[in-house]
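Ticket 4471: requesting a sanity check on a complex prediction with flavin mononucleotide. Repro inputs:
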Amino acid sequence: MTTAMIVYASLTGNTEECTTIIEEALENLGVDVETVDCMQAEPEDFLDVDICLVGTYTYGNDANLPDEIVDFYEELAEIDLTGKVFGTYGSGDTFYDKFCQSVDDFTERFKEIGAIEGAESVKVDLDPGEEDIENLNSFAKKLVEKAAD
Ligand code: FMN
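Returned structure tokens:
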């Protein structure tokens, strides 16, 4: 059975909503999914699954990572995920210049540690609408297909 772990950060619930959509999509595709809040997650746990996901919002004056996910981001650099499939997603606000910068930061970090981008990241403007839901479902499907390659 294909396995996945989703690590997420969400302050006002938008990224959490995206997380639930992805979790359900993966489960419907027969994937065994574990979803963990970033404050409870350890990067090493990604070593035990086929698909690694991070969902995060973007915050701060300079498009900073949310405070609660900084440790996870830094510790992620210490592990080797060569050959594992990853996907990133999150909510932001197009009002800001650096829309969903934190999603891009995690994409880069995963690439640095050897993981393979299984699907292009999904960036959602505030809460997920109909089109976003479709994108999140197709994101989940692509990740599963890539993991089966
Ligand atoms: N969104 C961005 O895309 N880029 C930003 O630089 C950014 N900075 C923010 C700074 C502040 C002070 C606040 C309140 C929001 C900012 N946002 C930014 C918007 C949040 O990422 C957005 O509200 C998001 O939906 C929150 O996700 P959550 O509901 O999962 O917490």
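Notes from triage: Residues 6 and 35 are 5 Å apart (CA to CA). Leaving this open until the requester confirms.
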